[in-house]
Structure formats: C-alpha cells, structure tokens
Amino acid sequence: MNCINCKASFNLEFALSNSVFSWPEMQTIWYVCPDCNKGNHIRFNSQKVELIKSVTNNGTSWETVHDYFEPTIDVRIDSTYLHVWFNGKHFEIESRV
C-alpha cells in the first residue's frame, strides 16, 4: 500500500498495529504515515481494503483512491472498537466516537 499524500510504501499489518483510531460504523481506520505525518483513511470490506478520501468537507461522501484484494480480511464492529482479522491476527482499533 502507498500513502495517499507522499506515496511512501507501508504494509497493512503495520497500519493496523499503528492506527490511531477507527470509525467502526464505516469499517475505517485512521493511519498516520510516519514519513509525511499525514493521515490515511483505510476502509475494510469483505476481501477488500480501500484507501479512501473525503470529497466533501463534512465527510459525507468518499472516493476510493486505491483498492486491494485481500482474501484474509475479516471485520466485525461493536460500539467501541473496530475488530479486524488479518493473516490470522486480531486487531482492535478503538473508536473515535
């Protein structure tokens, strides 16, 4: 995967391990790139990971910048965490709300 802002390469496991927070209802995490210190929205769907960006100021409309097929992704949400299973590992990313 590549940062939307500076194009630096990062792997998904690193992003999941270093995510600052999530929006479980959107199945999205916020990952800050260590190279440029800017954020990336990463959304999870069944067998797909997407880098997305807001196309409105209030975040009501999103555009997929890159998408990746990832057969090992599984996602569950609850009110306080986004749960992501990737390559047999479980990641709990706390909700921003």
Describe this structure in words.
By secondary structure, the chain is mainly beta. It has one domain (12-94). It is 6% helix and 47% strand. It contains 1 helix and 8 strands, in the order αββββββββ. It has a 5-stranded antiparallel beta sheet with strand order 1-2-3-4-5, with no helix packed on it. Strand 2 and strand 3 form a beta hairpin. It is globular and about 30 Å long. The mean pLDDT is 94.
What features would you highlight for this structure?
single chain, 6% helix, 8 strands, 5-stranded antiparallel β-sheet, 97 residues, 47% strand, mainly beta
Quick rundown:
This protein is mostly beta strands and 97 residues long. It is built from 1 helix and 8 strands, in the order αββββββββ.
Largest sheet: 5 strands, antiparallel
Count of individual beta strands: 8
Report strand %. Answer: over 45%
What portion of residues is helical?
under 10%
- Based on secondary structure, the structural category is mainly beta
Q: Numbering strands along the chain, what is their spatial order in the largest sheet?
A: 1-2-3-4-5
Rg, rounded, reads 12 Å
- Could you list the spans in which at least 5 consecutive residues all have pLDDT below 50? none
Count of all domains: 1
Average residue-wise pLDDT: 94
Q: What sort of overall outline do the alpha carbons produce when their principal axes are compared?
A: globular
